[in-house]
Amino acid sequence: MSLKVLVGCKRVIDYAVKIRVRPDKLGVVTDGIKHSMNPFDEIAIEEAVRLKEKNIVKEVIAVSCGPTQAQETIRTALAMGADRGIHVEVPAKEMEKLEPLHVSKILAKLAEKEQAELVIVGKQAIDDDTNATAQMTAGILNWPQATFASKIEKKDDFLEVIREIDGGLETIKVKLPAVVSADLRLNEPRYATLPNIMKAKKKKIEKMKPADLGVDTTPHFEVIEVTDPPAREAGIKVEDVDTLLLKLKEVGRI
Amino acid sequence: NTRRRMAAIILSTSRLFSASWSSLSRRTLVTTASRCTEAQARAQFYTDEHKELQRSLKKLIDSEINPYVDQWEKEGQFPAHQVFKKLGQAGFLGVTKPEEYGGLGLDHSYSVAMSETLGTINCGAVPMAVAVQTDMATPALARFGSHYVKEQFLAPSISGDKVSCLGVSEPSAGSDVANIKTTAKRQGDDYIINGQKMWITNAYQADWMCLLANTSQGQAHRNKSLICVPMDSPGIHLTKKIDKMGMLSSDTAQIFLEDVRVPVENLIGEEGMGFTYQMLQFQEERLAGAVMTLSPMQTCIQSTIEYTRERKAFGQPLLNNQCIHFRLAELETEVECLRALIYRATDLYVAGDDVTKLASMCKLKAGRLGREVTDSCLQFWGGMGFTNEVLVSRFYRDLRLVSIGGGTDEVMLAIICKLMGTLPQLPMKK
């Protein structure tokens, strides 16, 4: 099997951190805050490694766009079983303004360069929740896409993917090459074992800039303001359903 | 005019100065730069591999351990076999152990990295139990044991299939290790063991014990041996669990050994060397004990900041009171000092130095600082701090042990004094 898979992994603020809006109200505080790999990307890496273990895929390449610290994210991917990494250097200031469109262009270029036949990314990043990168990457490459995957099976030269959609589960067939985005229930990522962490030390991480791939990272939109959601107000308890209906009418909800 | 001349002179001299300075600095820039990165790396202490180890272990703790700690504390026991198997599978029980027995053969800095992350477990009992397995019951075995004992006891302890405990302390001998009374008398191809052991962590769940016993007559430092004793051997009786004020999920017991028969092959290393072997691993044990307090102390300070930021009294957050934020700053300072001492001691140990003095200082400071931090923080939590519903009161109870177990503060002080040359000579034993 000569299938190469490219997996995108993003370095985001750790899910357990209590985020705070910056004083300039243009973003959230990131300095000194704990960061880790986007949980959905962990699931993507895990799936790629499992495909390799099943001999469906030959090589897993982990890609991350970001400042120097993005290498930590790639290293985690290597420790989980990815074969090598690519770090697309984007300075911290630019990172704030990096959009899914830029990342999609980068991933598309890399997929072509590496001759990968499968691109897997997490369905969305937990910082911007855009849920756009997989879709746009497929669009740019003109490849089929299977988003919100909760199960992936290879059958001959296509993939059978079960997707989690609003109405339930949808099973589709996509011909390779394809782009897949990982949803929560696709798998449970492994702990990088210590022997693998040590082995990862020898794995290569290639460095490059977006310009090297011919991608322009000029932002297309500008963030005007970032504010906290309104503080949650206290609710009230009512005696029975009739009172509930009365109250709802009073506040104009029904 | 004079002013302009003054300005010109100042400008020219400063330009001259800066010219020679820049050439000088260019020459020294290379060495300064490399020394800077070296210094930074040393100060950071952990490399990317260490951090990856910590990340992976933290994930394991967050999903397999922390969600259950409250329950285990209530039940008075944590499932050692279950937890150790998970840790063992990920390679965390053999970090510094030999590769031929399933270990990773890494240097002690990785063990310290692991111990620091173990401190993120929301109780003291589980990290302590793991430390017994990795840094107390197995170092001598790994270093001096025969192939047979290493296969029987070390390999399964590294894989997490067997739980170990350390049998050194006795009812009448804790700090005074040389004075233990348990005997292991040679009889044909066996040792017959008689005696009692006290304060044994993991006792109820252990599959084997690393036992220190007197194997001959003679000088107290030369007549003891370390023996691997399977805990299902006939003659081993455990008393009911010791009811402690803290470390609640750790099962601690007193063990009676009555004519316990163990094959001579279970001896670790040479007879008579047991005391020395034990002493050799104390440096690691003490460093581990110290580094495991860093995260709990950090957690106490951080959670106290968050609590006092929300909690209001007399119209403003408690945190606004100088006595509180200044005190927390003091404590944070002290924790940094301890951290620097621990990292330095580890660096020297990894480099091959004897760090008895520094390791003893680390343990001493950790025990005392742990009490200070938890005591001050608990005070700031007020009434809530006094309940069993908050983490700070659990750490108050759990960290209190650090000044006692693994070498009391007083023993640490005596060691430091000995190395300072200030310890008075003990009267000669007749």
Structure commentary:
The complex is a heterodimer of chains A (254) and B (430). Helices cover 29% and strands 26% of the residues of chain A. Chain A has a 9-stranded mixed beta sheet, with helices on both faces. Chain A has one domain: Rossmann fold, CATH 3.40.50. Chain A has 7 helices and 11 strands. By secondary structure, chain B is α+β, with helices and mostly antiparallel strands. Chain B contains 14 helices and 10 strands. In chain B, helix 12 packs antiparallel against helix 13 and helix 12 packs antiparallel against helix 14.
Radius of gyration of chain B: 26 Å
Please report the two chains with the greatest interface, counting residues with C-beta closer than 8 angstroms to the partner's C-beta.
A-B, 15 and 17 residues
As laid out across the biggest beta sheet of chain A, the strand order is 9-8-7-10-6-1-4-5-11
What string gives the helices and strands of chain A in order?
EEEHEHEHHEHEEEEHEH
Summarize the structure in short.
In chain A, 29% of the residues lie in helices and 26% in strands. With 254 residues, chain A is α/β, with parallel strands linked by helices. Classes of the chains: A alpha/beta (254), B alpha+beta (430).
